[in-house]
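re the bet — no i am not wrong, look at it urself. input seq straight from the record:
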Amino acid sequence: MQNRREFIKQSCSLCAGIAGLGIPTTQLTGCAPMPIFKAEIKKNSVQVPLSSFIESNNMITVSINQMEFNILLIKKFDGNFAALEMKCSHQANPLTAGKTGLYCSTHGSAFDLEGNVTKEPALLPLKIYKTELNNSSVEIFL
């Protein structure tokens, strides 16, 4: 856990330093904050309001108190949604989401936004939760 905190701290310091040099922050897409929605489980699912998505980001981290790992909720270009458990399939470490995939800072595994392994040592894809669009929210079935 300490290594992850140091990595995040160093990454943010790097972004702040680059921004201080006058490089436009629009080029720092890895430093953009991802919205976090805190959800409660009701009847083995969670509801995420569509209003939680911001225009510039098609992803939300869903934090659920009763679960050890967060879920990445992705709004796809075709209007569908994908929900991926942010738990590395290699050794159950938390993942960090970026614009193009999810990454494990512990051993270097990487996954695409479909949950498929793009870099080992992980061999298995991420757990995918079923989603359903209901009026003004997305339901994630746990």
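see?? The chain has one helix and eleven strands. told u. also Residues 2-20 form the longest helix (19 residues). so pay up
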